[in-house]
Amino acid sequence: MCFGDKNKHNYISQHGSSPKRSSRLARQQHAPARGRQRGRCGHGSSRANKEMTSRVLSSPGAESLREAGEVKRAGLRGGRGGRGGRATCCCSRKDGMGDIADGEGSFYSNAEDYWREVPPTVDGMLGGYGSISSIDINGSKAFLQKFLGDGDGKTGTDCALDCGAGIGRISKRLLLPLFKTVDLVDVTQEFLDKAKTYLGEEGKRVGKYLCSGLQDLVPESGRYDVIWIQWVIGHLTDAHLVDFLQRCQKALRPNGLIIIKDNVSYEGVVPDEVDSSVCRDLQIVHRLVGRAGLRIVHAEQQTNFPKEIYQVHTLALR
Asked: Composition bias, kind Basic and acidic residues: at what positions (predicted)?
């Protein structure tokens, strides 16, 4: 499953209470001082997180973890009660997460369970940070419009795919204004049902509502000018992310683009047991893109986001 326009912010720092939302965007270096608060590992750690970490480290496919040679503690704001009972101390690796073997099933099912508890609202999709939606959309639009047009080498505007679409926030404000047809995919049926009303009249131009996890999704070959993947790659294992990107490449039209917009950690991989996801550093993301046989044609860092959240980077791939 994959769980897309599900921005991982920490609501606690500004609002003092926790929504039912993810906090994966919270800057890891800010959290250790809060480790005494209701953490999910480290201080007051949960057995489930420790067992998951153990499975990842011992799994046959976790070569990159073993090569890293060390596990260090890093703070990550989070908690249950809606993503973020407050802080969590999580394990950060200096290399990739590896392929979760024994724990792969629970990695996905736990995430699916988490997202079922999130309200189908814009504030729910943005973890209580609904106020940043316009900043996010404007940055994405400026990035995307660099490539769209009718000239030589330009990307067409016939059809786009919104991966991890949630209730359709990105489709409504970014993709539908630019493309003739947009397909939405999300693992949570309730979000897709909400999207049908949230999108209003523009929803008539939605081609497909697909309820699927990205690790299982096979996009239609040659259908899409742009495949937009935002705040969702952390819900895929390394191997599944590489495989999904390869399938996306086959789904592109000539001059098509895959766009990844997501959080990046400052070093290594930071797992979040709360919503069963990870945050990778930029070097690791680049390496996985290369393993998929894709190249980065342009990259930018999103600006004007709150200082307490992770950096967010946007990559255009072909």
From this structure: 64-73
Q: pLDDT digits over 228-239, tens only?
A: 999 999 999 999
Three-state secondary structure string covering 100-134:
CCCCHHHHHHHHHHHHHCCCCCHHHHCCCCHHHHH
User: For residues 164 and 185, is the Cβ–Cβ distance under 8 A?
Assistant: yes
Q: How far apart are CA 22 and CA 7, in angstroms?
A: 7
> HSE on the CB side for 31, CA within 13 Å?
36
Q: Look up residue 214 and give its two tokens.
A: 């990205």
pTM exceeds cut of 0.85: no
Task: List the one residue out of 43, 44, 35, 90 whose CA is nearest residue 273.
Answer: 90
Residues 6+ apart with CB under 8 A from 242: 288, 291, 292
Percent of the chain residues topping a pLDDT of 90:
61
Distance CA 284, CA 269 (A): 8
| Residue 152 reports pLDDT greater than 50 | yes
**Euclidean distance between CA atoms 242 and 309, whole angstroms:** 26
Structure letter (DSSP) for residue 140: H
The label of the residue with tokens 């596990």 reads: 71
Q: How does strand 181-186 pair with strand 206-211?
A: parallel
Q: What gap in Å lies between CA 317 and CA 257, rounded to an integer?
A: 6
Specify whether the CB–CB gap between 136 and 302 falls below 8 A.
yes
Which of 276, 299, 301 lies closest to 56 in space, CA to CA?
276
Cβ–Cβ under 8 Å, residues 175 and 285: no
How far apart (Å, rounded) are the C-alpha atoms in residues 279 and 235? Answer: 9
d(CA 128, CA 179): 28
